[in-house]
Amino acid sequence: MNYKVLGAFLLVFVFGNLGSINAQEKGMDYGFRNESLSVDERVADLINRLTLEEKAMQMMHDSPAIERLSISEYNWWNEALHGIGRSGVATVFPQAIGMGATFDEDLIFKVSSAISDEARGNHNTAVENGYRRQYSGLTFWTPNINIFRDPRWGRGQETYGEDPFLTAKLGVAFVKGLQGDDDKYLKTAAAAKHYAVHSGPEKLRHEFNAIASQKDLWETYLPAFEALVNAEVETIMCAYNATNGEPCCANEYLLTDVLRDKWGFKGHVVSDCWALEDFYGGHNVVGTPEEAAALGIKSGVNLNCGSVYPSLVEAVNQGLVTEKEIDKQLAILMKTKFKLGLFDSPTNNPYSKLSAKDINTREHRALARETAQKSIVMLKNDDVLPLKNDLAKYFITGPNATSIEILLGNYHGVNPNLVTIIEGIAGAIEPQSQLQYRQGTLLDRPNANPQDWASPNAGNSDATIAVLGISGVLEGEEGESIASETFGDRLDYNLPENQLDYLRKLNEAAGDNPVIAVITGGSPMNLEEVHELADAVLMVWYPGQEGGNAVADIIFGEVSPSGRLPITFPKSLDDLPPYEDYTMKGRTYKYMDAEPMYPFGYGLSYSDFEFSDIKLSKEKIRKGQNLEASLEVSNVGDREAEEVVQLYVSDLETSVDAPKYQLYGIKRVNLKAGSSKEIKFEITPEMMELVNHDGESVIEKGEFKIYIGSSSPSARSLELGAAQFKEAVFTLR
Predict the structure, then answer these.
(1) Are 241 and 142 in the same domain?
(2) Residues 169 and 289 in one domain
(3) Residues belonging to the active site
(4) Does some domain include residue 682?
(5) Quick check: pTM over 0.85?
């Protein structure tokens, strides 16, 4: 052995490591590492140590390490729409539109709290193993609180539906669960997206100009964003499109006048991914990447998801923007990293204890099942559900019966135990029962083989369960829906005709035996013929990893359905304005004139509920006063069930067009058969406000009507079997 070589190696190893340790200790002496200083002081110290090139790169979503300051690389891009997404094994909850159908903010808070537990556990585990890749960070670009104004939008599945009040309630709950309640540290950082006035068309989103009046902005498109800002959401993501002539990521009115000045938003703004490239490649408001980078900084975009901000160095050289302006926007962004504890010792952060054992837990799986149960909407039931689980023979069929795709929706995680609908049904029936399966028809095109060996099974089965609908290959984001010829949008409102043909055959073959249609999808669709042909219809959305079990729980009566539609199902697209028209007239339950197929807020139960007359604490009030509305809800059926009690307010005397009525209260109540409960709602001045043509909220004297029931108060709701809603009138003097 050459001892001289070995000795030299040991000297290099020892002194090299001492140098590394000394450098690390020296790094700990930096002011930005000093946890006793204020966040502002630490941020200022950090920025003063950075070169212009380093500043530019720290404002990129994939910000690199700065080794001389012992700063690790960090990727800001993470998704958590209904569970941590794209990062490996995680609990997959129902898609957001399904969570919207729960009408349950307390449940959604539990869901997002579970997601943030898994997010911290995922991040901590990744870092411990040396991974700092995309989708392993703590900044989540969730929730999507855009208003699902038109059923053609493929990404509407990511939202909580068409109503600003419901969207705000669920969005705030989701943000609070993601961000936690520690006095010092954020559990994760949530983002409200896509700001603002963004809901298609997908193909045109990089160049489209959405025109919205001040009334529509402040009545429909902005309230949920304002609610999340008031809830201290950490991030706002600006949208691809332009609004009223300016790209959303360079929109002075939206980003400065409203977001920063009017609402007082203190967090950071991130561009949608490659939206700043659209400044010169789509909207054509500038000509070069350098001009786009400068415009982004001057507009208040703190973080660039994309590839523009490396051009900031040259933009400074060209005099398009100053380093001082960059410092101001970088400082806002860096505060988020400090609030997450990314520059602090893990021992001081309560969320550092979360680990891999907190991912995909038994408790989270149970929560996913409960959420899926409460999301399922029973649209029709001719007294065939619930089924007994010990019938002689069941036939399950349809293109989605065995599909994993229909469990997931978009922006999803993966799970080692995804329960398809056939698996859920198979696991719920008694061993003496027989279950037959045939796919029967393809998803969106006629069978190549004309022979039909499937539908005759409906004639010799005690019940047929047809799992129909659409999936993420037909609707979704611009580039993800690989079977969509319209870039993820659904410009054809109908179910694929081959599915209807197959259902017609099943109906004919079944005779007197029941046919239950289970419909998957993330958006409204034409179910008029399905409603006629099937004896029962369930809308199950994209129900997550426990979807199959949840569907079985409903079909076999382990749980009574309690989901409610968070969006109107029109009878036809002909009943709506053009897709590209962003005016609200003729849209959603508030302004739609045509009778819908299924109304907003609608959903049936296995039990029957009755409402007593409304009692008002006052029948005449003055401006600024509250009043209380109360009534008794009674379960007059023969089984325990949950009712979703909904309050709507209508301004009967207005100086401008106003919604027919607006949702302003939700209370879920579980009642045993024969029991009753008093429900109270506080009617506040905010519920009496009218948005005028200038976008101002005003209160006008006159009469107001209150509706309380189990659906939106339309004749169609009653026709479909919803409980009779109750009305009361009060006068504002």
Answers:
(1) yes
(2) yes
(3) 272, 475
(4) yes
(5) yes
